[in-house]
From TrEMBL:
This is histidine kinase. Residues 452-504 form the PAC domain. It comes from Phragmitibacter flavus. SMART domains: HATPase_c, HisKA, PAC. It is an enzyme of class 2 (transferase).
Length: 745
């Protein structure tokens, strides 16, 4: 910088100076000069009504902005205008003479009169707006055209109306007002309004000492109201604050105290048609601002004052809330819990509601469960009774190994009531020969989630045995992983014994029947045997002769011996067949080729056929599958059918006298039929009945036994009459393995 020349420094200075000046210029151009408003109050600043009006005015100016406000309080109540006007003129002239005012706002009638009187000197040409003045005060006054304002409207009438609503039996009105010009003026207005209600007795206390007023209002009878109107000065001339008076009277009074000033409400009065000074001030302020800005002012019709009620006072003087008119505004009502904490209460209610719903659902659920449990218990009891009555043991076994069994069930297996039960313990009681079949049946039921049915033997600890029939079914639980098998078991030992006895008897009967059958054929069989025996004897005698003559041709001898051997075999076959039929052997099942059975029988009946003059023709299908059965019993059936056919044909002359035997495979069954050409069946349905016989020497048991044999082989035996004469019997047996497969085994 040291090297800068003085000329350079001057340039910089000028540059900055210009910049600064330009900024000032811009600022002054953007900010217009403020509007100047002078507020002139008749009363002193401490009066609450004045404070309220002032607050309203200031709020209106603040809202506009850029308004410079000056305030003067003449306090004409204490310093009357008559005496102090001169001094005030001097004072104002001194202060505001040099200022260019844009607006003068006057609050109070005394000041309005003062301003109009000294306007030329003090505020020439400045528009004047007034407020805080009762309408009737202006009635005799002619205002200059640029003086305007909003009048105060104390609504005494509506206040009395409100008192009549809150105190329906109202009879007396005690009017409290002061001695100042303002007090007297509004007091008289109130009395004029009260005069319109002749039913009300009015007592004015404007001349009563203040202390006495307080004493008097303490003992007022019911159906009385205190009307506090205004008291800037009491009867002795002492300055009073009207709100303070309102408070002291309200505190002392035995009856409700009414007022027309809103700011008295918080001091304890019950209410009235309330004048809101702050709103009044704001209204004037807004109007003044409009005029300052050159806008047309809104019409200044004073609105009627609303009914406003002090809720606390309502309670204090025991006025029922129901008497409060619906269009009245209630203040100082303590907020309800709901108004204070709506969010919290909503939350709590929501929680309680949700909880209640949950509890209700839970109760319903518990109720349902109790009902279900009761029903289950009843059902279990009923089932238990039924099961006990039927001799059934109930049990439940789940795959995890738990087993439950009723006492009846435990007794079946010889378990004590307190014994621990599991799958292995029960299996241990099952007869070893039946264990695998039982396990297989259980496995099948579990795999298919189906039924379980089984009859097996139980070996009791004392060594005795009993038969048990078990029936059950699978129940899947939860996601289907847990499976339970539940069912019943029953002692069927007696039934099984009876069945066994019946089986034995049947076998006995069957044997007797066979013996009888063979006996029937004794003659023919003897004849049949005679043939090979005669041939053997003949051949043997011839051979002996050849040997005796010594002319034996070895080839001829060999042939003879071959014949002898063949005849011997034939005779042996016949004897073996008879032996097999009459032998009393236990029934045994094996795979049997029905062709063999047919051929064996044919060998036995051949002689009988010849004796009866009957031909036997066969139509036998080759490679028939095997059947599972007892070959002797199957021979017995076939023999019975063929002998019956011979019998039938013997009894009537028939042509052809033939028995046709056929065998075939029909739909996985091996079918064998015996057809004759006799007189046909006397009764297709009855021929299988026991003891049904049309023969003089018949027992009527043959076909009954034959059918039962076939049925125990899992097959059927049926009979029918043929349309072209004769009867046909056919039996069907389930096919087992094809014969060619069997051959490869
Ligand atoms: P039984 O031969 O001792 O009478 P079955 O039970 O063998 O007893 O036969 C019962 C009856 O059925 C016979 O008495 C007969 O009347 C009738 N019957 C059986 N087979 C034939 C047949 N092929 N033709 C006509 N009737 C028959």
């Amino acid at each position: 910088m040291g090297r800068n020349s003085p000329a350079m420094s001057q340039v910089f200075f000028l540059f900055f100076a210009f910049g600064w000046l330009a900024q000032i210029g811009i600022a002054s151009a953007s900010e217009p000069s403020p509007k100047r408003v002078l507020l002139l109050y008749s009363e002193r600043a401490g009066i609450p009504a004045i404070q309220a009006i002032d607050a309203g005015l200031v709020e209106a100016f603040a809202a506009r902005g850029n308004v410079e406000v000056f305030s003067e309080y003449f306090d004409f109540a204490r310093f009357p205008a008559k005496k102090h006007a001169e001094g005030q003129v001097e004072h104002l002239h001194d202060r505001y003479g040099g200022l260019k005012l844009d607006k003068v706002i006057v609050v109070g009638f005394e000041t309005l009169k003062f301003v109009i009187q000294h306007r030329e000197k003090l505020f020439p040409g400045v528009p004047v707006t007034f407020c805080g003045i009762e309408r009737h005060l202006l009635s005799g006054t002619t205002l200059p055209p640029d003086v305007n304002g909003v009048v105060l409207n104390y609504d005494f009438r509506r206040t009395i109306e409100l008192a009549l609503k809150l105190q329906p039996g109202l009879k007396d009105v005690v009017c409290v007002f002061g001695s100042s010009a303002f007090d007297q003026q509004v007091g008289h207005d109130a009395l004029a309004a009260l005069a319109e209600y002749p039913q009300l007795r009015v007592r004015r206390l404007d001349t009563t000492p203040y202390a006495e007023i307080i004493e008097q209002v303490r003992h007022l009878p019911r159906n009385t109201m205190v009307f506090h109107i205004s008291m800037l000065r009491d009867s002795s001339g002492q300055t009073r604050l009207s709100p303070r008076v309102a408070e002291e009277i309200s505190n002392a009074s035995s009856v409700p105290v009414y007022s027309v000033a809103l700011h008295h409400l918080e001091r304890g009065v019950i209410g009235g048609a309330m004048m809101d000074y702050a709103a009044h001030g704001k209204e004037i302020g807004n109007e003044a601002v409009a005029r300052l800005d050159g806008r047309p002012p809104t019409p200044n019709e004073a609105a009627s004052s609303p009914w406003i009620i002090n809720w606390q006072a309502l309670k204090k003087w025991k006025i029922p809330e129901a008497l409060v008119p619906s269009d009245a505004l209630i203040k100082y009502k303590p907020p309800t819990l709901w108004e204070e904490h709506p969010g919290l209460i909503t939350g709590i209610l929501a929680v309680v509601l949700i909880q209640s719903i949950l509890i209700a659902l839970l109760l319903v659920n518990i109720g349902n469960r109790c009902r279900a449990e009761r029903a289950l218990a009843e059902s279990e009891e009923r089932m238990g009774l039924a099961a006990a009555a039927a001799g059934l043991g109930m049990w439940v076994w789940d795959v995890r190994g738990n087993t439950w069994m009723t006492e009846q069930g435990r007794a079946l297996f010889g378990f004590k009531p307190e014994a621990e039960l599991d799958y292995a313990a029960i299996l241990d009681r099952v007869h070893p020969e039946d264990r695998s079949a039982r396990e297989l049946a259980i496995k099948r039921a579990l795999d298919t989630r189906g039924k379980y049915e089984m009859e097996y033997r139980v070996q009791l600890p004392d060594g005795s045995m009993r038969w048990v029939s078990a029936r059950g079914h699978c129940v899947a639980e939860g996601n289907g992983k847990t499976v339970k098998l539940l069912g019943v078991s029953m002692d069927i030992t007696h039934r099984k014994q009876a069945e066994l006895e019946a089986l034995q008897q049947r076998a006995e009967l069957s044997h007797l029947s066979r013996v009888a059958l063979v006996g029937e054929m004794a003659t023919t069989l003897a004849h049949e045997l005679n043939q090979p025996l005669t041939a053997i004897v003949t051949n043997a005698s011839a051979a002996q002769r050849f040997i005796a003559h010594d002319d034996m041709d070895p080839d001829e001898l060999r042939e003879m011996l071959t014949d002898i051997a063949a005849d011997g075999r034939r005779a042996g076959d016949i004897i073996r067949g008879i032996k097999g039929m009459v032998r009393k052997v236990a029934s045994e099942r094996r795979k049997v080729d029905m062709i063999d059975v047919i051929n064996d029988v044919l060998r036995l009946v051949r002689a009988d056929a010849l004796a009866n003059g009957c031909a036997i023709t066969t139509h036998l299908e080759k490679n028939l599958p095997l059947v599972l059965g007892d070959p002797v019993q199957l021979q017995q059936v076939l023999l019975n059918l063929i002998v019956n056919a011979f019998d039938a044909m013997r009894r009537v002359p028939c042509e052809p006298c033939r028995v046709e035997i056929a065998s075939s495979l029909d739909n996985e069954s091996v079918e064998v039929s015996v057809r004759d050409f006799g007189p046909g069946l006397p009764d297709e349905d009855r021929v299988f009945e026991r003891f049904f016989s049309t023969k003089s020497d018949g027992m009527g048991m043959g076909l009954a036994i034959a059918r039962s044999i076939i049925e125990t082989h899992g097959g059927t035996l049926t009979a029918e009459n043929m349309s072209d004469g004769g009867a046909r019997f056919w039996l069907r047996l389930p096919a087992q393995v094809p014969i060619h497969e069997e051959a490869t085994v």
